[in-house]
Amino acid sequence: MSSLNPGICRVCGCTEDDACVHEWGACGWYDDTRTVCNSPTCAKEIQLSEQFYGYCFPEPDGWHTPAVTLNSAEEVFRYTQLHGRTGMFREIRVTDSGDHIVVQMVDGKYTWPEEWKQFNKEDAAG
Fold first, then answer.
1. Which of 24, 55, 61, 86 has its CA at 20 to 30 Å from residue 3's CA atom?
2. Residue 53 φ then ψ, to 5°
3. What is the CB neighbour count within 10 angstroms for residue 82?
4. Alpha-carbon span 15 to 22, nearest angstrom
5. Which of 83, 84, 77, 80 is nearest to 38 (CA)?
6. Distance (Å) of CA 110 to CA 4, 13, 89, 119
7. SS3 95
8. 102, 98, 59, 46: which is closest to 79 by C-alpha?
9. DSSP 66
């Protein structure tokens, strides 16, 4: 395993300029340390035990549903796709165990992280 160098994945060695690609697009960073990419392969390889928590907001920054525990990047993606596209909730927010936002959708469009905004373009093309 390589040393902890921000901007280089310690599992696969990808960088911001040379991202790895998985089934739903190019990777991004798992957290603010930028030492592990969020590809399912890398997450599984280092046995990440962190859980994520999904919340649905009928109105942005207002009341939200109880937290739903999500155990992988794939579960986060499916949760946001399911709840963010129904029209029932204007904002979908997924946080990590430190309560930092890791994925956010507003009005059915990804607003964070930057890498996930590419999924908004697929909707416009389809």
1. 24
2. -130, 125
3. 12
4. 14
5. 77
6. 29, 26, 13, 7
7. strand
8. 102
9. P
